Here is the input.
Amino acid sequence: MSLSPDILHAAHLLREGKVVAFPTETVYGLGANALDPMAVARIFELKERPSFDPLIVHIADIREIGRITTSNDHRVQQLAARFWPGPLTIILPKSDLIPDIVTSGLSTVGIRMPANPIARELIREAGCPVAAPSANKFGQLSPTLASHVAKQLPDVDYILDGGQSAVGIESTIISLNDQGFEILRHGVITKEEIEQLIPYYALPVEEKTNIVSPGMLKSHYSPEKPLYIIGSDYTAPADRSRVGLLSYRGDDISGYAQVETLSSTGDLKTCAVNLFAAIHRLEESDVDFIVAEPVPEQGIGIAVMDKLRKAAYRYL
Ligand code: AMP
Ligand code: MG
Here is the structure.
């Protein structure tokens, strides 16, 4: 079967690191190559998403599970055989191929294989897993038509028109534990349907190893070391000999034991890409605590500051 020219074009753009809106059976997605952190950063920028909500990664071939996760859980094959392609997202431990910006710094990644054939042809032709949230501006209605996307996201690189989305509500999200599965977000596929394959088992709160709904929590990506944001209620310390600095542009770094600069040119997208890795490095260094400079709260800078505040929350 030969693919339509618009699918070939959209796939080409994804390979080039561009952001493409595409139809899925739930709603239109705003997709980028999930292995390319700069392309993924552009999703947050276009959506003006105020929080680093982890993105769901879309695949067209079950064998991708072996590349982008470290799971060899046989239950994934069972679930896939029954519910994929379709609106079920499974949370699995991520492999190093998936950049932190996709998962908001979590060690797990949400994966699904969409039922919409145009979506699958696009992903297969692009040759990469595709990270995609809904193709709307934050706080606005989810798009179920290409024209909705065009209205809200005029700057998107391309919109692949696939007519009306069939389902129109979000995928069901589940995680697996030793005893069974747990539902993280209710969707089209019901608990009862999944229970025909795997027992339902909600882990007691104290045994949960993953944050369930990262975007919902005030404290989300919390480093072990205290993190303070320089601002009206916190001034940088005079003695910086045991202090790590998370610097916006690297302007005022004197005296700090260790400095991580987010973007020397002040590019906010680069800040978003570097944020998690920079905090990780400061965590691993032998500083006692971390101070962070604020970045401008515009565009993707809103998401960066939201993330930083979540990291700092416990210490305010
Ligand atoms: P959507 O808004 O449909 O793109 O779905 C994104 C939602 O999926 C997030 O807000 C999370 O609730 C959930 N999600 C994605 N990845 C993960 C993960 N690794 N762990 C837990 N929840 C996740
Ligand atoms: Mg959404």
